[in-house]
Amino acid sequence: MSADSQGNRRPLRSLVKSSSQVADRACGSVLVESMITDLKYAARSLWKTPVLTLIVVLTLAVGIGANTAIFSVVDAVLLRPLPYPRADRLVLVWSAYGNEGRSPASGSEMLSIQERSRLIQEFAGIWVQSAAVTGQGEPEALKVGWVTSNFLSLLAPRMQFGRFFSPEDQGSGAAPAIVLSDGLWRRRYGAEPALVGRQIMVSGRSCTLVGILPRNFRLAFPDGSNVPADLDAFLPFAWDLARDPRGQANSYIRVIGRLREGVTVMQAQAEADNIAAQLRAEFTEHATDDLKLQILPLHADVVRQVRPALLALFGGVGLVVLIACANVAGLLLARAHQRRKEIALRTALGARPSRIIRQLLTESIVLSCLGGAAGLGVVWVALRWLLALQPAGISRMGSIGLNPVVLGFTTLVSLGCGILFGLAPALAATNVNLSDVLKEWSRTNSPGRHSSRRILVAGEVALGFVLLAGAGLLVQTFVGLLHVNPGFRSSGVLTFQLMLPDLRYPTPESQARFVYETQRRLAALPGVQTAGAITHLPFDDDHPNWYSYYWRQGAPRAMQNAQMADHRGTLPGFFDSLHVTFVAGRNFDTSDEVANRKVAIVDDSLVRQTWSDGNAIGRHLNIENGAGSRELVEVIGVVKHVQFHSLAVQVRPQIFLPYQMAVRPAVSFSIATAGSPLALLPRVRELVVSLDKDLPLSNARLMDDYVAKAQTAARFTSMLAMALAGIALLLSCIGIYGVASSWVARRTSEIGIRMAVGARRAQILEMVIRQNMLPVLWGTVSGLALSLVLDPLLASLLFGVKPLDPGTFGTVAAVLFLVGALACLPPAYRAASADPVSALRSE
User: Fold this and answer.
1) Lowest model confidence (mean pLDDT) among 374-383, 424-433, 601-610
2) Would you give the DSSP letter of residue 540?
3) CA-CA-CA-CA torsion for 618, 623, 626, 627, nearest 10 degrees?
4) The pTM is what?
């Protein structure tokens, strides 16, 4: 090819390319203009029907708003990573003894695991105790975390002031150091930055303040770990962890670690299994306890208990959105029927079906966006309510809100709803033509005319049945927990806690003397019926739980270290103050204290597990005492099981020891009063000050508050489920009413003819209700089938009721039929009250 011919081709190619770009720009411009036209037309069309538009927007606002509110909780609790550096690599390292998992470790055990592990990059540990800060103002009780020197640097991105602990701060020879939380720093010290470097008196020790934690720093440990989210201060371990005795009886440290890059939890678990086998082979204590190790992702372990409830609620609110969409689709189908002449005329003038569908979808998307915008107001109200219902297990609910992720989710749900409920009316509209419109009379009584709306109503009723059934099961669970017998009576009981510092009370004997003297003086106060004390109150998870192996005297080797029980140090008045029921034997008395008898009281659960004949009095158990050693005790009493951990589950049997046998520096007092328990609190404070002016009284609460706390999670799920079921019932009622009204409007002339030839009003009323209850019947049957499949998924959330409860299903069916009949009644009454002549002239 010549150069000239090549030169002539280049301008031609350029021209073609330029023409293509112009065409693309023109096409894009036309598309934008067409979309703007559709939006303007949609706005004018919706403005002409303000009542319908308002109903649709409010319906969608409720559905989308409820969905967004629950998603904001799911996002904050389940989806959003924990606010720690490289949080996805953090794991908890639990010890397991026999059948007892999720246990802490001793210091020596933690160090042994750290030495042997190659896949976990960094180990840290924490042990939570109570302490008292003095020296400036009134003494104040603190929750402090004894930690390894790297614990805070593992979880906190930085310090607000000062520095993290260093390895030199930890150990028996280190100078005492302390880090304060932002809350304590502001509350007690007025947020003074210059405080760093000064001395602070904590439980009689002078500690150097080395740092202040960031304002938003909170711990996230799972329920049952006895590590609260908000600790007041942190202290490095002041003893040599390597010298800790081994074995389950000496375990107290919650261990956390960070996986190396590229290491999976399964790989770390395989390594942990090998390490546990090595420790069992090397140390007799670990072999006796049958030590195993569990590696669990921190985030997954934190949310493990609340995850089922949140996922169930999220699924429920999704059903509410589907019901709202079905309701709106029914309204738009009716609107499309009213616009059939307009649509037929546009078709006759050459409008393509795709163009009509796009226009109608544009209108539905505009409606859904308006509903989504209005739903943000519903979200704001719902979030305030959710925070008021906040269960203890949802430790990060304070961080929920309308962040970009939640707003993006709302936008997607709004657009999805617009397409979902707008598609059926848009497709139905394309089947309308001018010929059909002119023959409208012949189509009026067509049986399939409004079958799609009936199907939508049946779908609403089916989904409503599922929600009502689930809500009914959860409500029965909550009611069951309200009436469950926890093994004690909480009304009229005041509780408080004391933490005895070891510098002023250095021996178990001195601590026991103080506790017994405090109980004696409390019992002498006016208005006090009984005063007692115990090392762990029921449902109080602020203190590390104490449990250990036990076995009956003479048990064969194979039956030792096989069963565990909670151990409690108890003063005689505790059982009387909470009206704990004795099944057999007697209570502790002063003679046991004076003679230092080795005696114990056990619960009926332990008796059933230990002695086949059910007789425990006078028999002996091998148990762990307060010093961590083992000894034989005589059983002198049997009490009904006390629910210490959960209202719904008996976690372990219980062994109660005289306090002098099981001394703990943290002790909780229980006072049964004749009048108002809180009115006695000032006198109790004065009494404690008279005994020790530097000893703060903490956690002064009614025993009723602990029981209410144990009911919180069930209250949260049941109230939300009831709210969602109520919304679903309301929307279903509106849908049934709409279909019944439309049916009456379509068959007005037929009703007039029936009345003209002698039909009675009662017959007309019965006909309207019967015809429009058919979708309710179909929906109820379908909902029952769905519930049989879905409700067993709620089994982990239920107590005292089976997932497939016939009574619940029967009640829900009856409620739906009643609501359906009530929704049909107004249109039926209008039809039965119509004048026959006016009805015949209606068309």
Assistant:
1) 424-433
2) -
3) 120
4) 0.81
Look up residue 43 and give its two tokens: 């706005």
Question: How many beta carbons lie within 10 A of that of residue 584, not counting itself?
Answer: 16
Average pLDDT over residues 304-310: 85
Greatest C-alpha distance within the chain: 123
Residue 633 and residue 735 share a domain: no
Question: Does residue 49 belong to any structural domain of this protein?
Answer: no
- The CA-atom distances, in angstroms, between 790 and each of 268, 312, 468, 784 are 35, 10, 12, 10
From CA 496, how far away is CA 519, in angstroms rounded? Answer: 12
Rounded distance, CA 165 to CA 145, Å? Answer: 13
With CA atoms as reference, report the closest residue to 155 among 37, 254, 45, 56.
254
Residue 442, pLDDT > 50, answer: no
Is 254 found in the same domain as 177? yes
Residue 166 host element (H or E)? none
User: 213 CB contacts (<8 Å, ≥6 apart)?
Assistant: 152, 156, 159, 160, 179, 180, 181, 182, 234
Q: Per-residue pLDDT tens for 539-549?
A: 887 777 888 88
Backbone angles phi, psi at 124, to 5 degrees: -150, 160
Residue 87 lies in a domain: no
| 3-state SS assignment for residue 527 | coil
What is the 3 state secondary structure string of 87-113?
A: HHHEEEEEEEECCEEEECECHHHHHHH
Contact 393, 715 (CB under 8 A): no
Q: Identify whether residues 188 and 277 lie together within a single domain.
A: yes
Does some domain include residue 71? no
Structure tokens at 284: 């007799």
User: Residue 240 CB: number of other CB atoms within 10 A?
Assistant: 14
pLDDT in tens, 686-743: 999 999 888 888 889 999 999 988 888 888 888 888 888 888 888 888 878 777 777 7
| Whole-number Å distance between alpha carbons of 142 and 358 | 65
The pair of structure tokens assigned to 462 is: 């089916």
315 and 245, same domain (yes or no): no
C-alpha to C-alpha distance for 85 and 156, rounded to whole angstroms: 7
Is residue 680 domain-shared with residue 793, that is, in the same domain? no
d(CA 655, CA 181): 37
10 Å CB burial of residue 51 (0-12, 13-18, 19+) is exposed
Helix (H) / strand (E) containing 559: none
Cα(732)–Cα(722) distance, integer angstroms: 15
How far apart are the two ends of the chain, measured CA to CA in Å? 80
Number of domains in the chain: 4
Backbone φ, ψ for residue 443 (5° rounding)? -90, -15
Rounded Cα gap, residues 483 and 256, in angstroms: 39
608 & 756 share domain: no
Q: HEC states along 128-158?
A: EEEEEEECCCCCEEEEEEEECCCHHHHHCCC
For residue 25, what are the domain limits? 1-35
Q: With 0-12 CB in 10 A as exposed, 13-18 as middle and 19+ as buried, what is 80?
A: middle
Give the number of residues written for the chain.
843
Sign of CA dihedral 312, 318, 324, 330: negative
DSSP bridge partners of 258: 90, 122
Q: Is the confidence at residue 574, as pLDDT, over 90?
A: yes
- What are the two backbone dihedrals, phi and then psi, of residue 749, each rounded to the nearest 5 degrees? -65, -40
